[in-house]
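Q: What would this chain look like folded?
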Amino acid sequence: MFDASFNYFYFVRIGCNRKKYMIVKLKAVNILKMKGMKRELLFIAFIFSTWAGISQSSEEKKLEEALFALPDVSFTKLTQHNELPIQYMLRVKQPLDHKDKSKGEFYQRVLLTHQGFEKPTLMQTQGYELYTGKNELEIALKANHLNIEHRYFGESVPDSIQWKYLTLEQVTADLHKINQLFKPLYKSKWISTGISKGGQTTIFYKYFYPDDVDVSIPYVAPFNDGLEDQRIYTFLDTVGSAECRNKIEEFQRNLLKQESAALEKLKWYAKGAGLEFKYLDDELGKAYELAVLEFSFSFWQWGSKCEEIPGNENLDTSLDYLLKVSNIDFFGDSSMEKYAPHYYQAASQMGYYGYDIDAFKEDLKHFTSNPLASFYPKEAGKVVYDPALNKKVDTWLKSSGNNMLYIYGGSDTWSADMIIPTSKVNSKSYVLPGKDHGKARIKNMDPVMKKQFSDQLGLWMGMQVLPEEFK
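A: My prediction, written as structure tokens:
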């Protein structure tokens, strides 16, 4: 419940006309009726805080008045008085089902960074929970930034999870609502962007709402072809040198051959780390084999070095390196629960990848066919993959997917599923040679590529974009 005196005080903060001045005066008179030193101290504190509020910058007042006027939006200020840029944590009320609002609702977190009403606006479409680090586009363009947590992640979760409403149609409708709320406030150019799964969200958002933003910039965003995308296997069979690939396979095979001894050691590691594997039927062995199979994928995704791979002489050394690159905790219950919405989306609409066991069949104890990496939540029931949306989006990207700038890392495993624009669209793909999932960024482009990217972005944004601003 709101306190009436708080409401009066807050209205004073956002303006200083005659009517609001009278409110201050009336409150001051009421406070003067108090007795003793306590009365005097309260009066001084009230006048000081009221005067500080009245001296609030016009930009800040205008923004807060606009936020108050937005339907379905509540907010908390994060920055100090007159600190720039201004930041607010927003909670936007979203329906579970945008086609039937009677089905329920939840509140979606959005971190708003305000640079100026005339500045461009960046929508960062997260694929998971809210990541609050600065975005290089926000910095280079000095853009307003709407950093949006994905539905069903972090704090943007309904009271009860109803998996049928976790669809890309609903996810992008969330983004569209936020876009339409803020479009009247920020009337300059708009960009949407996201990294990895957030980049995938950017792609689907552009498909469903092509007119919401002027430019879309997905980073390291795969566009999967099925639940077990075969292009991943092709990539892992051809990336790097043959010597390095052989070294990786030998490392994996050696670990599988010593599984019993490895599990004796890892059970103490798992106990110390508080890991449980109920999702895998309490089988530490399953988690171990999955971690070994995952090793090659993670090795290239995160830019590991071939010279770092240990030999087969010492099992402890090999296990230490396995846990560094592909930890068993990724297959533990806490991780499974944390990423359950991601796995559900992969298994139902987005597609994903699997593990090719051909080279390791004789050494595996728990798998006789290629296991999939989409560990969807068991409480969701039977999840059936539907490729229909991906097929529609693929056709659209090739014929109508304009004003999109894709960024990929040449050595990142996910570049196996990169989008290569056709000649029918004006979109472009920038592949950074030798860069992994975390290094494929504009700031790490070579000077020629960075200038090409900046010039193209500037052309579509109608403004000068300087390559040196990406740093």
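The radius of gyration is 27 Å.
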